Structures are given as C-alpha cells and as structure tokens.
Amino acid sequence: MQFSNILIHWYSINKRDLPWRNTKDPYAIWLSEIILQQTQVKQGLPYYNAFLEKYPTVFDLANADESEVLKLWQGLGYYSRARNLHSTAKGIAINFKGDFPNNYKDLIKLKGVGDYTASAIASICFNEAAAVVDGNVYRVLSRYFGVETPINSSKGAKEFKGLAQELIDKERPAEFNQAIMEFGAIQCTPKTPNCHICPFNKGCLAFNNKRIDELPVKIKSAKAKKKYFNFLVLISEDSKTFLQKREGRGIWQNLYQFPLVETKVEVDFDSFKETIESHTFLKQIDYDLSLYNDAPIIHKLSHQHLYTKFWILKVQKLIIDEAISVDEIQSLPVPILIGNFIENFNFE
C-alpha cells in the first residue's frame, strides 16, 4: 500500500490537466487510449479534440465513412488503429446499442483493444482493479524493482503485468493506473530523469545502483529494411491528376497514393526514365519528366525505411477514368509522406 499511496499522492499534486481525465465516458476514454497508443500527448491531443468534435458519440463515428475517419486521422500513423477504431464503433453501435462492455473480460474482445486499453477503460470507467502496463509503466517498475527481464518479450509482458496487478490499489484503481502512467511520462522519463526529487529514490534499485540508463531492458529489433519508392505525379494541362487507393493488407491500407514504382536501389534520371517507359499509365502518351527532389526523402516506419522520390510527369491529357482535379486531392486520406508533398508542391 505504501507504493500506491506515495504514487497517488504524487499524482494529486503533479498531474496534467487533460480532457480525458475529466470524464468517465467509456467512448471518450476509449478514443483517447487508441489515439495515444504510440503517440505522445502533445501530438495526440488535437486529434482527440477533433474526433470528439466531429464524432461526439460512438453512433456518429459508426455512421461515418471510413475515408473520412482516415482523413481525420492523417498524420498520426499506424493507420490500422483508425480502421479498427471505426470497425469497433460500428460493433458497439450495432451489437451493444452504443453501450461499451463494463468489464475487462468483455472489453478485450473488441477489435483493436488489447490488454492495456481494456485495463484502462475497465479501471477508469468501471472501477475494476485491472492494472495497465504500457511503456511508462515498464520503465517505472523495471527501475524501481530492478527487473531485468526484457520488456518486449512474452516473459517480460507476463512478469510486469503480474507485478502491476499486485501493486494496484484495489480501492482506487483508476487513480493508480493514471498515476503510474503519468509518473512515467513526466517524472521517470526515458532520459535524464530528475531522480533527486523523486519520491521513490530511497527504494529505487536502479537509482541506488546507478543503473537508470540500463533499465528497462529491451531486445534489439531487427534492422529496418530499406525500400526505394518512386511516385509518379501525373499532371495534365487541364489540371487533372491521379491517385490510387491501396488495397489489401500492409502499410497505408485504404489510403491514397500517386502511382508507385518500387525499385531495388535508388535510381537516377536516365535509368528511371527507362524503367517507366512501359508503365501502364504512360503508354501512348507524351510526357515531360522531371524530378521533384534530387535527394530521397527518408520516411521511417517501424520495420522499414522508405527512400522516396517524387517524379513529376506533365502530360497533355490524362486518359484515365479515375483522374481527378488537383483541387480534390485535399479531400483524400493519404499517408503523411504524400500529404507533406501535396502541401509543399505547387500543382498550378
């Protein structure tokens, strides 16, 4: 109890004033947790506000078109979160008449809801003693208790969950969970935490053994693969262009992109021009080719780095049924890599 008492007292003094902390509405809590997965509060807050403004209830989100949801999500990355968000909203609206399950066991069955999110909703909204374990919690517990089990291993996940469950305040689970996450976010930070003002420094094994920088332990992931993306930005004299919707599973599913030519290595102007001579979109039409960026734009994803070039193809007319006005591009959901290009490029 001493650990939870110290933690909750610290939280009562130091917690940030965030909108999802002023509600017990499962929809709002669920929305905040999905947005904040792999996203910092500073970046996620505007998205949270935008989603609640546009979709104030789960029914509003369920009735939205997926492309609208993806467009509003644009820039957050990990777009499967947005697709799962939309799918789950439909399930809640149809199968549960808008009411979220009120316990961890049923919450975790929802699409896109894992142990962490189910625990957060169950504790905050329904006062269930289900401990949350995220990156912040891993860091706090591994340092304080000197746990060396890798946090990204199945053994580590089980061990830290068990430890958090032992520590959680059964009478105040919501406060405990929010407190330990907040403590990791603003006090027990990944780099250069101010341990000298930490209320746990006397008992913290990492601090007392000078191992703050060593914990938590994480197994190194495989080296990211390099991929070479070449986007064909077609522009006609009547200001038409063409984007394709990415189908199937994989990155950017259901988002739009310019026609893509992937090469094994970075290509120069002459070799690329030769490569695209037989491209479906370029047969039987004359075009003027230019390169937008001489140096590739490197877009880093979790398991791959995309070395990207945008090739501008000026044509007299686009003989493609799906061609759209360049003004319509802004309404399409696109990856942030494409979005940044659209924002900076002059289509006139």
TrEMBL record:
Its cofactor is [4Fe-4S] cluster. It is an enzyme of class 3 (hydrolase). InterPro entries: A/G_AdeGlyc_MutY, DNA_glycosylase, Endonuclease3_FeS-loop_motif, HhH-GPD_domain, HhH_base_excis_C, HhH_motif, MIG/MutY, MutY_C. Keywords: 4Fe-4S, DNA damage, DNA repair, Glycosidase, Hydrolase, Iron, Iron-sulfur, Metal-binding. Its EC number is 3.2.2.31. Coiled coil: none annotated. Gene3D superfamilies: Helix-hairpin-Helix base-excision DNA repair enzymes (C-terminal), Hypothetical protein, domain 2, Nucleoside Triphosphate Pyrophosphohydrolase. It comes from the Bacteria. Pfam families: HHH, HhH-GPD, NUDIX_4. It catalyses: Hydrolyzes free adenine bases from 7,8-dihydro-8-oxoguanine:adenine mismatched double-stranded DNA, leaving an apurinic site. Binds 1 [4Fe-4S] cluster. Residues 35-186 form the HhH-GPD domain. Belongs to the Nth/MutY family. Adenine glycosylase active on G-A mispairs. MutY also corrects error-prone DNA synthesis past GO lesions which are due to the oxidatively damaged form of guanine: 7,8-dihydro-8-oxoguanine (8-oxo-dGTP). This is Adenine DNA glycosylase. It comes from Hyunsoonleella aestuarii.
